[in-house]
Amino acid sequence: MNPADAIACSSQDPQVQVLKAMLLVEKQQHNITKSQLFTCQAEKQHVEQENTCSL
């Protein structure tokens, strides 16, 4: 198989399409995670304070 065939094959390969889609989703999730990180940390501290008080 020559390199041209490999490139043509890979771009049409369903698995490659799936991997590209997964990478895109991961990038989007990473952006969301980054923006929600502060909120998540604040909630975690709040829960930890509640747990400490209820003991």
What this model shows, in words?
With 55 residues, the protein is mainly α. It has one domain. It has two helices and no strands. The radius of gyration is 22 Å and the shape is rod-shaped. The mean pLDDT is 73.
Fraction of residues in β-strands: under 5%
> Main sheet?
none
Q: What's the order of the H and E elements?
A: HH
- Contiguous uncertain segments of 5+ residues: none
Q: How many β-strands, per DSSP? A: 0
Q: Mean of residue pLDDT?
A: 73
What class do helices, strands and sheet pairing give? mainly alpha
What's the number of domains? 1
Proportion in helices: over 70%
- What gyration radius follows from the Cα positions, in whole Å? 22 Å
Set out the fold topology.
Elements lengths: L2 H10 L1 H41 L1
Question: What is the gist of this entry?
Answer:
This protein has 55 residues and is mainly α. The protein is built from 2 helices and no strands. It has one domain.
Task: List descriptors.
55 residues, mainly alpha
